Description:
The structure is a single chain. The protein is α/β, with parallel strands linked by helices. The chain has a single domain (3-315), classed as Rossmann fold, CATH 3.40.50.1820. Helix content is 43%, strand content 16%. It contains 14 helices and 9 strands. The protein has helices at 43-53, 80-94, 107-118, 120-126, 149-167, 176-181, 183-190, 197-209, 212-217, 219-224, 228-232, 252-261, 277-280, 282-298; strands spanning 3-8, 14-20, 27-32, 57-62, 100-105, 127-133, 239-244, 266-270, 315-317. The longest helix is centred in the middle third of the chain and has 19 residues, at 149-167.
Amino acid sequence: MPEIHEVRLPDDVRLHVEVSGPADAEVTAVLLHGWTLDGRAWHRQLAALRERFGDAVRVVTYDARGHGRSSCMALPTATLAQLGDDLAAVLDAVAGSGPVVLVGHSMGGMTIMEYAHRHPAHFADRTAGLVFVSTTAEGHTHTVYGLSPRIARLIRLAETTGAGVLARCGAWRPPRPLLRALQPSIRWMLFGDRCDPTDIRLVTSAVARATLRSIGGFRASIGTQHRLATLARLAHLPAAALVGDRDRLTPPPCAESIAAALPATELTVCPGAGHMLMMERPDEVSGAVTGVLRQVLDRPVPARTARAARPVDAARPVGAE
């Protein structure tokens, strides 16, 4: 069973963090979920990594601010820039002393890019590998929802307007009966040809835990972020990028531009899959993460100053005195 931690950030937001594996593991993998989801989205990858690596790899998942079991935040901090800062704080608090492989789905991948952009020295000191799952470095440039550009523009206008309304609703959460009624729309937007009903229920449960402020507030920076230049400076790192060819939110051109910025990236396009690749194609995603971890584990690690986790008041196990 994972250890449950709470990381308190400088603005008093508290993040729900789950950690498996020893602090002195050879490598730490940090898995970052997408917009309106939570750390449970990675449950199949968590099981696969534990089975394949045991105590050689420490695995960290956490719920982003305003999502899942983490606390809500002030509206001005509902930005990718803030999420990049939060990731730096989580690494300091729970990632241990070894190198880190960062794995990001959708908004989680954009969070990694923002962390690299805002904290280049910290990123360079910690990060040894990258995996990008159904994400983009170009905002909504390629997002047309699988529809004609004209209809996509109308949907984006409605979505942006609605996001502004939701962002002002604070810590309220979506009513579960409404989300159950919207499950066919969720299934169409997020999944491809095949979908396990348990995955729809998990996604619906996650959205029900996200605050309306986070559902609406993050939309603006997600749509406008552009970090291809940042990625181009990371070309020395082992990396992988995966996308489904039925992804309506971050279609294949998003992953292709990431791979072009990182020429050594292993690009995988999954036929018939949508946006939720860790659920739809768990073996492919786990395999990509495993491949990057093995590259990091197999290469010589230069001598480095031992780095301990932060004191217990910054990352304390839930229930600790």
